[in-house]
Amino acid sequence: MASLAAGLVAIAPPDFPVLLDLRYATADNLTGAPIYRRAACYLNTEAAGLLTRAIALAAQMDLRLRLFDGFRPTEAAWALWNHNPDPNFLADPRKGSPHSRGAAIDLTLVDAAGNDLDMGTAFDAFTPLAFHGGLDITPAQQRNRALLLGIMTAAGWDFYRNEWWHYQLFQPRRYPLLSDAEAGTSMM
């Protein structure tokens, strides 16, 4: 398991048996352009440990995790904020995001055939339909969100009520905000 001087752990197979779909390294994100120069996923050591627990819990149900984002350098947080400064879905970079502390992960569940479970909206759908507990989605979509929520909370994660895909450590502000250079990730 590779770790950086900033206390971030590289999240990738085989150490972490997940599917990586790092959207901010592609144009398939809310900005329509890549944010990251290099596709990589990192978490701080506490979050990496909780992710290991979530992977194990999902595996017991023949499910896997598909990761969309983890550590988000402060430069990336500013790029997203400058594109869409909506505090309902993005943390104001002046206050700092749990992502920029290596303390948050964006993800979904994947079945044994490799299909994403239907959560009712796409990742980064900045709409009330993306809220946890939303009732304007089908019962099957509600069950899939509840399954993800159950796995993640049983593994020790907190959730953000406006985004079914976002999970974070409790009290993430105990970790410092990190730029790409401070983290040593070479993502930007």
TrEMBL record:
Name of the top EC class for this enzyme: hydrolase
GO molecular function: D-Ala-D-Ala dipeptidase activity
Feature type site, description Transition state stabilizer: 72
Record-listed E.C. numbers: 3.4.13.22
Pfam families xref list: Peptidase_M15
Cofactor: Zn(2+)
Catalytic activity: D-alanyl-D-alanine + H2O = 2 D-alanine
Domain of life, source organism: Bacteria
Gene3D superfamilies: 3.30.1380.10
Family per record: Belongs to the peptidase M15D family.
Name of the protein in its database record: D-alanyl-D-alanine dipeptidase
Originating gene: ddpX
